[in-house]
Design brief:
three-stranded antiparallel sheet; 537 residues; Double Stranded RNA Binding Domain; elongated; alpha/beta; TIM Barrel; 3 domains; eight-stranded parallel barrel
């Protein structure tokens, strides 16, 4: 097995430079704890010299007792000054961190154009800044910004920057592909040349050519021993190198240990947790940790993985904390339904007429616009009904909606539902902030006392998709409803030319799924009437 690779996470610093990402100090504390539990070696928390929020984070983080080395970011001292007077460098010391990450120029073009100083003064800025932090007992990683562009344009000067970094006593020199424009072959060639120097080499890449992960792997294979990146690839422009792909590729494919034994199984949970805290939707097809990373839809594929999962999976999903999913759609075959049923503990006989009818029914429903790959709960209800496992605990006889707008006032919605529950037919009425919410409230009003578990359920997402746009306002729509309780979430689907009817279908499935296996609270008919607040019409 190859030597251990240090994992340097910069989600809290470089990741927050991505568009639409803003983390409070409290958010950063939560994420830092998750990253530490995952087992990364360095957590770059931010730039204490740039804003009060980052300094607040570092002060609060002192009490966390992290195993990872908490790292503060900053720049080299200003030109024509001394490090002892530089506010950014002093802020790093005041942050009380064990490690610092300094950034400085390694491309002569940037020295002349961005810093507008001499090549000699840039070297002095680098050396002076590193020595100042080392005198304070801080471990220093130096980010050689634009190193690969600098090396290709002025090799001698780029190497002189590395020598200055080493002579000043930096613990790591990190080669940065800051513009994200270098190719894997170039990365490998340049890192191979640099790896002969007496330096600990790290790699920091950006994804502007969608090569950040590949470039990082190439650098490691050429001799780099630290990888920098962010969870889910967050970062400026097209993002940073995605640690959720880098870590398993290094550990599972190339044999480089990165995380402590057994910690790789936390990767999916950490990726999704950070996505929630950052309030950024995670692509379902993200490798290793995405919801569709191990999802199978084609009948031939599913038939094969039932025999041996290696037929269509490059690793076991469980090794990164993910799981296999089988999607049921118009492309489904018998194998898809059998796998899904097996997963749910439902017994389906492939030779049974009911099973064949269920396959035909699902295909027909998909043809009408239903989409079960995104509505697992609706599919499970169909399978359980086919196997005779589902007993209807309530039935709907009718509903009415009243929607009223007077003048400039907001629209008021009221729903009246006639429902049979516990053998009694009752009417309930409720208002809502829209017709669907009013229907939801009215139905719950009829059910919640008999089935108090509904108190824990809430609608967490609602999506409407027009299926055949050419029909304009008469078009058929598909409604997906996601519901949650304290332990898990589930999705249901409805389809109709009427958006209210489609929403009602999805809503009913959602409540029926929530009540699977629930027994009603016993009571008399009079109790029921009192509990649900029957109105006489």
């Amino acid at each position: 097995m190859a030597g251990i690779i240090s994992v340097f996470d910069t989600t809290l610093r470089d990741g927050t430079q991505g568009e639409g990402i803003s983390l409070s100090a409290e958010d950063k504390i939560k994420i830092a704890q998750k990253l530490d539990a995952l087992g990364v070696h360095y957590i770059e928390g931010g730039n204490p010299g740039s804003n009060g929020k980052d300094m607040e984070f570092f002060k609060r983080a002192r009490s966390l007792k992290l195993n990872a080395r908490l790292t503060a970011f900053g720049s080299t001292r200003r030109k024509d000054s001394i490090a002892e007077h530089d506010t950014s460098l002093k802020s790093i010391v005041e942050a009380g961190v064990p490690a610092a990450s300094l950034v400085g120029k390694s491309w002569d073009f940037h020295v002349h154009t961005a810093l507008q100083t001499s090549l000699e003064e840039n070297l002095a800025m680098i050396g002076d800044s590193i020595r100042f932090l080392k005198r304070s007992g801080i471990e220093v990683s130096f980010d050689a910004e634009h190193f690969f562009d600098g090396f290709k344009n002025n090799r001698d000067y780029a190497l002189s920057v590395l020598r200055t970094i080493g002579e000043a006593g930096a613990d790591w020199v990190v080669l940065c592909d800051t513009n994200g424009g270098t190719l894997p072959g170039e990365i490998h060639q340049i890192v191979s040349e640099v790896a002969g120097l007496p330096l600990n080499i790290g790699i920091h890449t950006h994804n502007d050519c969608e090569l950040a992960v590949a470039n990082t792997l190439s650098a490691v294979q050429a001799g780099a021993r630290m990888v920098q990146g962010t969870i889910n690839g967050y970062g400026e422009r097209c993002g940073n190198a995605n640690l959720c792909s880098i870590i398993p590729n290094l550990q599972l494919k190339l044999g480089y240990p990165c995380l402590p034994e057994g910690h790789l199984k936390q990767l999916t949970a950490v990726a999704r947790y950070i996505s929630e805290i950052a309030n950024v939707h995670m692509p379902i097809n993200q490798p290793y940790v995405g919801n569709a990373a191990f999802a199978h839809k084609g009948g031939i594929h599913v038939s094969a993985i039932l025999k041996d999962s290696k037929t269509y999976e490059h690793i076991a999903p469980e090794s990164v904390g993910n799981k296999r999913r089988v999607l049921v759609s118009e492309l489904a075959g018998q194998s898809n339904l059998l796998f899904k049923a097996q997963e749910l503990g439902i017994s389906l006989d492939p030779e049974n007429v009911e099973t064949q009818e269920m396959i035909s029914r699902i295909k027909e429903m998909e043809h009408q616009g239903y989409q079960f790959e995104g509505a697992d709960a609706s599919l499970e209800l169909l399978l359980r009904q086919a196997s005779g496992e589902v007993t209807e605990v309530f039935s709907i006889e009718s509903f009415k909606l009243l929607v009223e707008k007077i003048g400039d006032h907001s629209i008021a919605s009221e729903a009246i539902v006639k429902v049979k529950v516990d053998g009694e037919t009752v009417y309930t009425a409720a208002e809502g902030n829209g017709p669907v919410n009013a229907l939801d409230n009215a139905l719950r009003k009829a059910l919640i006392k008999s089935y108090p578990a509904l108190r824990e359920m809430h609608l967490s997402d609602y999506k409407v998709r027009v299926i055949n746009e050419k029909d304009a306002t008469a078009a058929k729509v598909r409604v997906l409803v996601e519901s949650s309780n304290y332990t898990h979430s589930w999705s249901t689907v409805g389809v109709s030319e009427n958006v209210i009817e489609a929403s009602w279908q999805a809503l009913l499935d959602s409540i029926r799924f929530a009540l699977l296996g629930q027994a009603p609270v016993p009571g008399t008919a009079e109790d029921l009437q009192e509990r649900v607040g029957i109105i006489n019409l």
